[in-house]
Amino acid sequence: MKALALFSGGLDSLLAIKLTQEAGVEVEAVYFLQPFLAPAEEEKLIAHLQKLVAQLGVKLHIVRLDEEYLQILENPKHGYGKAANPCLDCHIFFFRKAGAMLDKLGASFLVTGEVVGQRPKSQNRGAFPKIDEETGLAGLIVRPLSARLLPPTIPEEKGWISLDHCPSIQGRQRKVQLELAAKYGLEYEAPAGGCLLTNVEYGRKVKDLIKTGGLTVDGLRLLRIGRHFRLSPHFKGIIGRNHRENQILFRYFYRQRNTEGLYLFKALGAPGPLTLGVGKPSADDRQNLAHLTCRYSDHPWDTPVLVKILVSGEKHHLTTISVLKKQGTLDPEQFRIT
């Protein structure tokens, strides 16, 4: 008998796998990689996840989410949480994706580290039946950490698995999980804030992309970099905050330099940020983003500054704009997303 576990990278997922293994069931795991990270960060995360599941001798499948996932973010059936987090829709989407993998892997049911009452939107007694029904997997999702608090599943009823050795955890307390981790000698990391979509500032930037029709995988990845400004419905700017972010913005522009709609701004003559413009700017939009780029440079006030602009496209080219760095010329807050 084999099960497929939805692995989040957290302790609860590790424990759910271990408890399922103790019941004599072979387990493989799947991690759904959301499009929030740069490629180098993705590689680091995947290596970390592989190290975690290696403690249990489990094969890990990495599934990169793409435009299909963006449709969930753009129009969630069950709505958002406090930010841009469609938690219930995400859970349903992940379970559907995992359920579609069962036959190919020779697995008979799903396992998850969900706990009754741990998350207000997606982990409660009312949400679990809704998730199971909408995924078409009713009775085939086993939640070992809250096993005796929930109705028996098909694997239990058919004798594929016994959960008599499992706990009955509920709520946000972690005492039982920590005791089990010590018992099994599991290495893990403490929770680090959860899904980025629950972050209010990040969610504001996601909703800006949705509102302006710019929600793409690349667009999501850029949201973690720099200061973000909406110059007009068709144009936004991202201003680097340090050398690392400047490098990321430059590499992004360079890779996409043959694609229309990208602009790289740099105020010449003094240290300062690189600014990535995305979209279709008017002349005023370009002028305003040049002013903002200059605003965050080290040029002294009341100084005329030449701003260089690299323009992408099949005929990518260089142009310049002259601006005056003067206090009160332009208020960044009128354009700031976050």
List descriptors.
Rossmann fold; alpha/beta; 11 strands
Structure description:
This protein has 338 residues and is α/β, with parallel strands linked by helices. The chain folds into 2 domains: 2-184, Rossmann fold, CATH 3.40.50.620; 225-334, no CATH class. The protein is 36% helix and 20% strand. It is built from 12 helices and 11 strands. The strands form 2 sheets. Strands 6-7-9-8-10-11 form a 6-stranded antiparallel beta sheet, sandwiched between helices. Strands 3-2-1-4-5 form a 5-stranded parallel beta sheet, sandwiched between helices. Strand 2 (26-33), helix 2 and strand 3 (59-64) form a beta-alpha-beta unit. The termini are far apart. The model has no long low-confidence stretch (mean pLDDT 93).
Question: What is the helical fraction, as a range of percent?
Answer: 25-40%
Number of discrete domains = 2
Q: What portion of the residues fall into strands of 2 or more residues? A: 15-25%
Query: What is the arithmetic mean of pLDDT?
Result: 93
What class would the helix/strand composition place it in? alpha/beta
Note poorly predicted spans: none
Largest sheet, in brief, is: 6 strands, antiparallel
Explain the layout of strands and helices.
Blueprint: E1 2-6, H1 11-22, E2 26-33, H2 39-54, E3 59-64, H3 67-74, H4 87-99, H5 102-105, E4 109-112, H6 127-135, E5 141-142, H7 154-157, H8 175-184, H9 200-211, H10 217-222, E6 227-232, E7 235-239, H11 243-255, E8 262-267, E9 274-279, H12 283-295, E10 303-311, E11 317-325
Parallel strand pairs: 1-2, 1-4, 2-3, 4-5
Antiparallel strand pairs: 6-7, 7-9, 8-9, 8-10, 10-11
Helix pairs in contact: 1-8, 4-6
